Known about the structure:
Number of helices: 4
Radius of gyration: 15 Å
Structural class: alpha+beta
Strand order of the largest sheet: 5-4-3-6-2-1-7
Shape: globular
CATH superfamily: Histidine kinase-like ATPase, C-terminal domain
Strand content: 25-35%
Amino acid sequence: MYIGRIGSGAHYDDGCYILLKEVIDNAIDEFIMGYGKQVEIKVEGNRVRVRDFGRGIPLGKIVDCVSQINTGAKYNNEVFQFSVGLNGVGTKAVNALSKDFTVRSHRDGEFAEATFKQGKLKKENRGKTTEPNGTFVEFEPDPTIFKDSEFKPEFIEKRLRHYSYLNSGLRLIF
């Protein structure tokens, strides 16, 4: 995956926004296929949280889907009819380029969670949950790569407006 310029966050196409776009694109894929009408995006400093209410990643595939190339449900034509990104690299690149990266999937009363540091798995957890189905991703771009990078809310808002225009019925909360 090509993230373009690393930048500082001062331009809408800087790398930090491409990382955020990759995570949001996965949530929009779920919406396009009829699962989950709401995506919550929160940015505090350089820490980003994205929560969708789609199907969630299959619990047994959560680590592979965010860390192993050519893995994920998007290669199964019976599961995904359309996808914003088909090469299976986006979220893996976000993980690899993040200081901290956490993914949690909620499916049918159970959850699986994996935590990474600079792309290396540090912790896995599974259990029961009352949370609705969906996926939660939290990451912070690695400051050794994205030096002095800072998210600007106006660039995020502009991208989210574009998503909302293109996806009638999708609720984006920022």
